[in-house]
Give the backbone structure.
Amino acid sequence: MDILHGFNNLPSFNHPVATVGSYDGVHCGHRIIIDEVVRRAKAIGGESILLTFEPHPRITLQQDEGLRLLTSLEEKALLLEQCGIDYLLVIPFDLSFSRLSHEEFISDYIIGRLGVEELVVGYNHHFGHNKGGDYAYLSNGVSRLRVTEVKQHLVDKRKVSSTVIRHIIEQGDMPLASQLTGHPYIIIGMADEDGVVATDRYKLLPAHGQYEAEVNGLPQSVVVRDCGVDVGRAFAMNKVTIKL
């Protein structure tokens, strides 16, 4: 997977199929959309593109009170690469970009800059200034895109969403969180001299307590505290990937 930043100096894409969104957590519901993008791109001999935002739009719009994210950009990229996406395009979400109407975003960027031929969206996807665009807009013929809508996904009759998963992680139910995401919960960071990984202020940590985990591929008990995740002195001063 190639990671691109912004819309300048883009490669020439071949029959691109795309999807757009925060994709926080890259959970089971997200993966159905992503699988559809990859499948459709392969069917036409094209390339799959996932567009996401950095920073999260709520941060730029100063609506970040209480914001907790399941994945940093690095963690998201790690998970997306496992999904078979060809390109991850990171959109610098600044105030100027936030003011784009949904019509401008589709005509100037999705079609104009990327040449996207088909767009795959979730059932509740909205985009553009004040979330003015949705599947109804895309499918009524105002653009020359082929558009596919993916319906809501349930696991054991339970709704799968980033919001639901955040609540479960806050309670420390990591087995259930893994069931809904389809993968272990990932925390990537640098351990200090005491073996403590201090995370970004927006990164959601599980409820305080001790958890069985995998740290850089090795089984390890870790402790979640206010200051971060204690992985032990054996990992001090090293970058670690924690899987809970």
Observations:
- The mean pLDDT is 93.
- The chain is about 25% helix and 25% strand.
